[in-house]
Design a protein that fits this description.
2 domains, disordered C terminus
């Protein structure tokens, strides 16, 4: 390369560098002016309301769980059925409450198809673990457990065999009490038998989960629900927390728990008041499997709800006389199963509910004082009967129990509300029809024994 060529190349490179530098300076100047005019770079404002601290009601200091059972019945048997994806934590507070009150608990754990039975870590001296999925054909192991049981609670179980379904149906027909706890994913599952069980019990679930962006417990899926209707499972419950709850329903809804205002359904994004818990007679369904975990029993009134469920499971009236229970004496002393319930002044009304109760000899009747300031004074009972009633005025939630052994008609009143017509009757066995119609017993004012 000669001198002239070198000079041309150097000149070209120098000019190119000057032009490039000028372009960069101009670009920076223009960007600076636009940034100054706009006040900074524009960003897209992405809304995540479920994580907004203004919308979350966080309580970092939960209360103390105090799970109590009010029922006075003894030595009942409850089957606790746990699905394959859950451990003992899902039912530990419930099991502990039942065992503490002297009831027998059998934990039936299922591993599901292709999965082993999950570990359930309860003390073998207080509970018995059995289980494994029932075979598609043949005997139902669950059915064998229910033959002499008083209550069944199923938590997160994803499927049932035909034998299981028939066993559960018979158990309910015989007066057993059943609680089903499910989670949203089960609505979309491919497991067999679940919907058949729901259909037999008159229960159902709906797709999706309930959430609340305005008021919740720690996160938007942990919703609050409040009671509506009668109070058996929800007695004393103002609010309960449900973690990832699905809507539920039933053919009849004696009592429910409904999401608080502002709750919405994931499948519609619309506000919902569809229940997440319902009770229909002796059966109930809860659209959540985590509300009984130890940490959740410290939230809201979950501990009261768990105690009520425990009471519900042991106070049914199972008639197992046509079943193989292994006993020779279906009646007599200790032969009654469960207890018949009479509510005293439910909802503050001056009534006994039911006003007339028909039972067999040897049946235990439990009088639950739903309102204080009442007593139970027998005004008539058969000869040889020794029911004293309870003369002292009782506080709310008090309980009076008596085993009615003598056939005949028993009549009673609450003295403070007698003028308002607060009276009741119990018909034991098959007394003479004239005695039933006329109310004639051989003893009047039988409080003297």
């Amino acid at each position: 390369m000669n001198k002239l060529t070198k000079t041309a190349v150097v000149t070209f490179l120098a000019v190119f560098a000057v032009v490039l530098a000028g372009s960069l300076v101009a670009g920076l100047a223009v960007d600076g002016d636009e940034t100054a005019e706009s006040g900074g770079q524009d960003y897209v404002d992405i809304e995540n309301p479920q994580y907004s601290t203004d919308r979350v009601v966080a309580d970092g200091t939960p209360g103390q769980a105090d799970i109590e059972m009010d029922s006075a019945v003894l030595e009942k048997k409850v089957v606790v059925e746990v699905g394959g994806s859950l451990t003992e934590r899902a039912v530990q507070p419930l099991v502990a409450a039942l065992v503490e009150e002297g009831h027998e608990v059998k934990v039936f754990s299922r591993g599901g198809v292709g999965r082993p039975t999950p570990p359930i870590g309860f003390d073998a001296s207080t509970t018995q673990q059995v289980g494994g999925p029932s075979p598609p054909g043949g005997n139902s192991e669950l059915g064998s457990l229910l033959e002499d049981a008083d209550g069944l609670i199923s938590v997160g179980v994803s499927g049932y065999s035909e034998g299981d379904i028939e066993a559960i149906g018979k158990f309910v027909d015989d007066g057993g009490r059943v609680v089903m706890a499910v989670e949203p994913s089960q609505e979309f599952g491919t497991s067999t038998g679940l919907q058949s069980v729901f259909s037999k019990l008159g229960l159902y679930t709906e797709p999706g989960y309930v959430y609340n962006l305005e008021e919740n417990d720690l996160n938007y899926q942990r919703i609050f629900a409040e009671p509506d209707g009668d109070t058996m499972l929800t007695d004393g419950v103002d609010r309960a927390v449900f973690d990832t709850a699905t809507p539920v329903g039933g053919a009849s809804e004696d009592e429910t728990m409904v999401p608080i205002a502002g709750s919405e359904l994931s499948t519609t994004r619309a506000e919902t008041d569809t229940p997440v818990l319902i009770r229909s007679g002796d059966t109930a369904i809860v659209g959540d499997t985590g509300f009984m975990m130890p940490e959740n029993t410290q939230r809201a009134d979950n501990d009261v709800l768990v105690g009520n469920i425990a009471d519900f499971l042991v106070t049914g009236n199972v008639d197992s006389s046509d079943g193989d229970t292994g006993g020779d004496d279906p009646g007599g002393d200790g032969g009654h199963r469960g207890a018949e319930l009479v509510q005293v002044a439910p909802g503050g009304e001056p009534v006994f509910e039911p006003p007339v109760l028909e039972i067999d000899e040897g049946t235990l009747v439990r009088f639950q004082f739903e309102t204080g300031g009442h007593n139970i004074v027998p005004t008539m009972q058969p000869e040889g009967a020794d029911w004293q009633g309870v003369e002292e005025l009782q506080d709310e939630d008090s309980v009076h129990e008596h085993v009615f052994e003598v056939e005949g008609v028993y009549e009673f009143v609450s003295e403070p509300a007698e003028e308002e017509g607060m009276s009741g009757a119990i018909i034991v066995g098959n007394p003479d029809p004239e005695e039933v119609q006329s109310g004639e017993g051989s003893g009047e004012d039988s409080t003297d024994g």
